[in-house]
Design a protein that fits this description.
single chain, alpha/beta, Rossmann fold, six-stranded parallel beta sheet, two-stranded antiparallel ribbon, 12 helices, about 45% helix
Length: about 240
């Protein structure tokens, strides 16, 4: 355990922090739910969809080969995605609220980057006080009565390498950390300054092996010790001291 921490700290030092922009995946990273699997259960398509998710998350098949198949099985309505939004808000990963509060207190920019859809993602973002302009999600289309019409199956968030393409465009003067649990997250690691794999909900060997740092505990809280500088940690300590006295 201690050895892992030391190795993680060494990698962070090598990557030269301070980080200004922290970007999170949603499913199985900020929340304990895998959204499409949850929707599939709602629709009685659980087994077929879970099988496809597992294959794509482990990097065995390409995302674009399975995403459309899954959406055609699930065909989620607007109401289904609103229900998923409620489920998201009830299923926050331990430590996420505290981590986001600390990052926001330190005036870090916090983003969400996900292949999942609105209104579920925007409901979660609002619950977590993440600005609407900092939410990058996939596009879905509904009929006027809310029935499923289709999704952006050619968009970057529906294909392998898409998160990487988006993150590359965000790199400027800012130092970026990306936190995620899946194969489409870790494949973006060269587009950011530090990739943190999160295994608190689902531990994926492929991701663990390829992450700069891997969090294998259930809580997101240890992320703070990885992404904050000594000075920033001191500012947080001083804040807590003030609150106590
Ligand atoms: Mg995920």
């Amino acid at each position: 355990m201690r050895k892992n921490k030391a190795m993680a700290e060494q990698k962070v030092t090598m990557k030269n922090k301070v980080f200004d922009l922290i970007i999170f995946d949603v499913d199985s990273t900020l929340v304990t739910v895998e959204g499409l699997d949850w929707l599939a259960r709602l629709k009685g398509k659980e087994r077929e969809v879970a099988d496809l998710t597992k294959q794509s998350m482990n990097g065995l098949v390409r995302l674009e080969d399975v995403f459309e198949k899954k959406m055609n099985l699930i065909r989620p309505s607007y109401k289904d995605l609103a229900n998923l939004g409620i489920k998201y808000c009830e299923s926050i990963v331990p430590g996420v609220i505290e981590v986001l509060a600390a990052l926001q207190f330190l005036k870090k920019e916090v983003f969400i980057l996900t292949g999942n859809f609105d209104p579920a993602v925007s409901m979660l973002a609002e619950y977590l006080h993440i600005l609407e302009k900092n939410v990058i999600s996939n596009d879905i289309y509904f009929h006027e009565d809310g029935r499923y019409k289709g999704f952006n199956n050619k968009g970057p968030l529906s294909i392998n390498g898409g998160k990487k393409t988006i993150l590359k465009k965000m790199i400027g003067r800012k130092k970026i950390v990306f936190v995620g649990d899946g194969a489409t997250d870790v494949e973006a690691k060269n587009a950011v300054d530090l990739f943190v794999g999160f295994g608190g909900v689902v531990r994926r060997k492929h991701v663990e092996k390829n992450s700069d740092v891997y969090l294998s505990g259930k809580s997101m809280y240890p992320l703070l010790s990885i992404v904050l500088s000594k000075k920033e940690k001191q500012i947080l300590k001083d804040k807590h001291r003030k609150v106590k006295t």
